[in-house]
């Protein structure tokens, strides 16, 4: 069973403690790891993230079932905890790094919820940069939103949580433009930075953030030796171009084998 690491970033941040997943994430970040191994690792990593997030945020209930042995022993029924069929879920594809992870999330949710309660939305999101290639904001382009979000858990499977701009912009769009009030916003990342956590966890709409690693590699040496988040204001994980250090490189490019 996956547990969570202790930290000082607040209760809405869930940092998974799972050596099996950490080992695969480390391989993903190495320069010699290329396609098709990248996609194979992403699939396994997101299976672990989705499982833990579902166990944390989705409603459960105790139900009784008659198993295949019921004809011989009708008196012995199975009583167990399962996910409530009333759960509603939306997986949001933040193209392009989030396209494959969102498909994985969408597919896995079908294993536990009725098909009519699940859908996948699509948002094209791109970084806006200045002449120095520094990120100045997020441009949300075209949308394909399949309906309202009343009482739905909205999942955002996006591998790298760098600045938080894309996620908060997407949540703002759902809050202002889409009918209904979501039950929860759930961000699923492989790696996040302290800067990302400060922006996202302060958002007016409560967000549950799940991640496998916090990268703060540009922090002062004494901060790197301290517990995660203890000196949050001094932690730094973004370089001048808002890429994560040590990070994993540009996963949008790597996932798609498209370097533009």
Describe this structure in words.
The protein has 260 residues and is of the alpha/beta class. The chain has one domain (3-256): Rossmann fold (3-Layer(aba) Sandwich), CATH 3.40.50.2020. It contains 7 helices and 11 strands. The longest helix is centred in the first third of the chain and has 21 residues, at 37-57. It is globular and about 70 Å long. The model has no long low-confidence stretch (mean pLDDT 94).
Helix content: 25-40%
Name the shape in a single word. Answer: globular
Helix-strand string: EEHHEEEHEEEEHEHEHH
Structural class: alpha/beta
Quaternary structure: single chain
| Poorly predicted segments | none
Query: How much is the radius of gyration in Å?
Result: 19 Å
How many domain modules?
1
Number of strands: 11
At CATH level 3, the topology is Rossmann fold
Summarize the structure in short.
This protein has helices spanning 19-29, 37-57, 99-109, 165-177, 194-200, 221-224, 251-256, and strands at 3-4, 13-17, 60-65, 78-83, 88-95, 118-129, 135-144, 152-157, 160-161, 184-192, 207-214. It has 260 residues and is an alpha/beta fold.
What secondary-structure arrangement, pairings included, does this model have?
Layout lengths: L2 E2 L8 E5 L1 H11 L7 H21 L2 E6 L12 E6 L4 E8 L3 H11 L8 E12 L5 E10 L7 E6 L2 E2 L3 H13 L6 E9 L1 H7 L6 E8 L6 H4 L26 H6 L4
Parallel strand pairs: 2-11, 5-6, 5-8, 8-10, 9-10, 10-11
Antiparallel strand pairs: 1-2, 3-4, 6-7
Question: Which properties best describe this structure?
Answer:
11 strands; Rossmann fold; alpha/beta; globular; 260 residues
């Amino acid at each position: 069973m996956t547990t969570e690491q202790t930290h000082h970033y607040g209760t809405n941040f869930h940092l998974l403690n799972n050596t099996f997943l950490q080992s695969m994430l480390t391989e993903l970040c190495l320069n010699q790891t290329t396609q098709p191994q990248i996609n194979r690792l992403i699939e396994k990593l997101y299976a672990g993230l989705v499982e833990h997030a579902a166990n944390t945020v989705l409603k459960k209930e105790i139900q009784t079932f008659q198993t295949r042995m019921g004809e011989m022993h009708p008196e012995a029924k199975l009583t167990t905890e399962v996910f409530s069929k009333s759960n509603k879920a939306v997986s949001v594809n933040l193209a392009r790094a989030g396209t494959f992870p969102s498909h994985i999330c969408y597919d896995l949710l079908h294993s536990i919820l009725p098909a009519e309660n699940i859908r996948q939305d699509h948002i094209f999101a791109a970084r806006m940069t200045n002449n120095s290639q520094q990120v100045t904001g997020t441009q949300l382009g075209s949308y394909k939103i399949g309906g309202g979000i009343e009482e739905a858990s909205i999942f955002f499977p996006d591998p790298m949580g760098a600045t938080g701009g894309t996620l908060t912009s997407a949540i703002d769009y759902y809050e202002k433009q889409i009918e209904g009030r979501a039950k929860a916003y759930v961000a699923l990342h492989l790696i996040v930075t302290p800067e990302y956590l400060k922006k996202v966890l302060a958002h007016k709409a409560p967000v549950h953030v799940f991640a496998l690693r916090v990268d703060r590699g540009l922090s002062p040496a004494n901060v790197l030796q301290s517990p995660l988040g203890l000196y949050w204001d001094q932690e730094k994980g973004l370089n001048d171009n808002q890429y994560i250090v040590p990070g994993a490189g540009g996963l949008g490019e790597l996932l798609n084998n498209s370097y533009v």
